[in-house]
Specification:
Strand order of the largest sheet: 2-1-23-22-21-20
Number of strands: 23
Shape: globular
Helix content: 25-40%
Distance between the termini: 44 Å
Largest sheet: 6 strands, antiparallel
Structural class: alpha+beta
Radius of gyration: 27 Å
Length: 465
Amino acid sequence: MQINLFKYLLLFVMVLTTAIGSVYSQPSSLAAGAKKFSADPQLKHATWAMVVADASTGKIVFDHNGQVGLMPASTLKVLTSVSAFEMLGKTYRYKTVFGYSGTIANQLLDGDMIISGSGDPSLGSWRYEQTKPARILDNIIAALNRDGIKKIKGNIITDTTGWNHEAVPDGWIWQDLANYYGAGAHKINWHENQFDIFLRSPNQVGAAVEIVSTSPELKGIQLVSMLRAGAKGSGDNAYVYFIPGTSSGLIRGTIPAGENRFSISGAHPLPPLQLHEELHAALDMSSIEVEKNNNGVQKEELKELYIHQSPPLDSLVYWFMRKSINLYGEAFVKTIGWKNKGEASTSAGVDFIRSYWEKKGIEADAINIVDGSGLSPQNRITAMALVQSLQYARKASWYSSFYESLPVYNGMKLKSGSINGARAYAGYHKASNGKEYTISIMVNNYSGSSATVVKKMFQLLDQLK
């Protein structure tokens, strides 16, 4: 009887050991992989952090420098997206009112036509059928035709009052500001505040490069090319420079020699002006005359002609995460500030985000951020804070929308982050044994090529497969 009991006890221990081993084999191999990763020459002068949690229980199964604040680059968009879902709601829609002041009689609008925005980052975007510029302009013309308006005796006013006019957050670098990924968030945005520049370069290296055209055609903006032709195959080394809020810019750097229509993309410094001018042109095409009158009725008497609503927030977050559109993140942060603190500024939004998550158990000092997109090299956040926000999302009603927004890297649902000297990933993974993990990994100040360090990061993450 004693022998049989011993056999059963031994069998029970073996089964338990096997079960435990199957659950924790990946984190154990992860520890060995992390040791190898730390010793890699590319990380000799680097700081890196990684936190892995059991997604089902929230228990931390691996932690290396999890409480060290590092540059997250675009993995900061994880926290911004979670915050937007939580604080604005997945069905939240921005509204832009196209209205008027004064009176309408005998086909005459005696007053101003007014555009009152709310910070919609998708207004005029090409990503959605209902937001394309032509569709919105057609809807405005249709509203004017519905009311029989053939002439506007007044001005077209873009109302940007009540919104912080510092479109670009503190901490963004000069080289980023006027390029498409550095578009600032205004109360009235248009075409994602982006335009394309088409360039022609001669065959001679070092010769001046000519600006051929822009799309859309820039209204009220002057661009000067200081570009030179580089060696063939040298790629895009061109950068646009604007002083924020001004109408003159220049392009410096090089593009390859022998190009007839080489394209780069810039960030429009004055998107309300671009919308204003495009609407003016659409009215002219529709034979609706605008007779400017500086004595127009004040905008406080705004009456609605047409209201444009953005796609719901979950749709905006999808593109924000999939295409890493910095503008969307900055708009979300300002909107959070406006809705919760009555101030549409980056600082108000960031302050509310930090205080909100502190109440949910994420230390405020673990979220030292200055924007919502991760573009600033001044941002610092811990891998632990990102994992905590990802874990919070799993229990939220909007989780499926958030999960769907995450891209796939290395066979895992991860948001990537890339900025000079920093690479990062954060998200979820389901292992081959069914175990689910929540992950954040960041590497700052690595040496050598980014492609090589990313490959090694993926090799480390492979230990969770």
